[in-house]
Amino acid sequence: MKLWLIGAYGIVSTTTAVGGIAIEKGLVDRTGLVSELPQFNSIDDYVKLNFKFGGHEIRDLEGNFYSAALMHWEKNKHYDFNILNEVKNDLKNIKARKGTALMCGTGIEEFGEIKTLEDDELSLREIVDKIEDDMRRFKDNETVVINLASTEPVHRFNKKYHESVDGFERMIDEDEKKYASASMLYAYAAIKNGIPYGNFTPSVGSSLPALKKLALENKVPHVGNDGKTGETLIKTTLAPMFLYRNLKIVGWMGYNILGDFDGKVLSHKDNKESKIISKDSVLEKILGYSPYSITEIEYFPSLVDNKTAFDFLHFKGFLGTKMKFYFIWDGIDAIVASPIVIDIARFLLFAKKRGKYGVIKEMAFFFKSPMENRVINTHEQFYQLVSWFREML
Ligand code: NAD
Prior knowledge:
The chain is α/β, with parallel strands linked by helices. The chain has 2 domains: 2-227 and 335-392, 3-Layer(aba) Sandwich (Rossmann fold), CATH 3.40.50; 231-331, 2-Layer Sandwich (Dihydrodipicolinate Reductase, domain 2), CATH 3.30.360. Helices cover 41% and strands 17% of the residues. The protein is built from 14 helices and 11 strands. The protein has helices at 11-24, 65-76, 81-92, 124-138, 159-162, 165-173, 182-192, 209-217, 231-244, 260-266, 269-280, 282-287, 333-353, 378-392, and strands at residues 2-6, 52-57, 97-98, 143-147, 197-199, 221-223, 248-258, 292-299, 306-316, 322-332, 358-359. Strands 3-2-1-4-5-6-11 form a 7-stranded parallel sheet, sandwiched between helices. The chain has a 4-stranded mixed sheet with strand order 8-7-9-10. β5, α8 (209-217) and β6 (221-223) form a beta-alpha-beta unit. The model has no long low-confidence stretch (mean pLDDT 95). The chain binds nicotinamide-adenine-dinucleotide. The site of nicotinamide-adenine-dinucleotide (NAD) has 34 residues, from α1, β2, α10 and α13. Nicotinamide-adenine-dinucleotide binds at residues 6-7, 9-13, 56-59, 99-101, 104, 108, 111, 148-151, 182, 200-201, 226-227, 229-230, 261-262, 333-334, 336-337.
């Protein structure tokens, strides 16, 4: 499969590329890949684990996938260096193309010098044409675009430009840059060119009505939003236990600290808001009521990519007695996220090959804010994915 990654030189993207090629070469096993579970064993007949990578970036454009992966490795040492060394030659020749950072908020200022298509004083139509052209040159029948760029601020919905495909194209032709964010433009370019699209971030991506309609018209499968990999994965796996035992959760506090670029970008109020909304809404959807909740995300530089989540739950049991439960999650973000990126791409290609298009609701299992699916309970989501897969065979 060919993965076009938006945010190509980020830690999740480069770890996905290192891991994908290492799997293909037989250097590492497939632990962490959901699609390798026995329930999905015939997926290999449809989508094999062989890889080509490319993508869009807005920084370090003189570098390549290897230099970017090495930079992240030096800061994090998040896997055995020999693996990186063995895939060095495969990654060295892959260079990202210049992308757009329209309406990406103040968070990306943290990257220092960035280079974008809009710096070249291009119109919206010219920016979109360039993005499409890059994707078209790369694509074949087994290509997927995955958004792994920094989280954008929440965008206000604009009925005139975001509701219909015609409106969206009018926005481009009228050069209305203030209504267009980078993530929606990349999603538009992918879907317009028939490429399945997955949004691993909380940014708007393909969730606009206009882009959902375009995906139906062009028969393109797409999914999002925001990969479920850490604290939210645990929250949505644990909360159902309280529900099944008829224990009432009265309060849930989650305090997340993380370093690295993602942490820096999320330390900006407008960029952080998207993430908090995505994390916060899950409890009410599972429990049917909303307990008192606090969700904090703070930048903690020395942790680099090691995210720590401290969670405290207050719950009420028999005779009205209140009890407490605490957990600490010490995950390495890129290590939990990267196999899921491969899974998302693989299931999207499977969907395409089985003639499914539009939002693939049954892939909710992979997301914090699944599109068009109110099932948030991880157990139920897993069974949905398994039954969908079996029905599609
Ligand atoms: P990162 O900061 O290492 O990488 C983001 C990359 O995107 C950077 O290289 C940056 O230069 C690039 N970028 C920013 N804006 C861009 C744009 N408009 N166009 C092209 N490139 C752009 O972050 P990461 O840890 O790799 O995470 C990537 C995304 O995935 C973030 O939005 C994060 O919130 C999301 N996410 C991560 C996890 C996880 O477990 N790691 C889980 C869910 C969601």
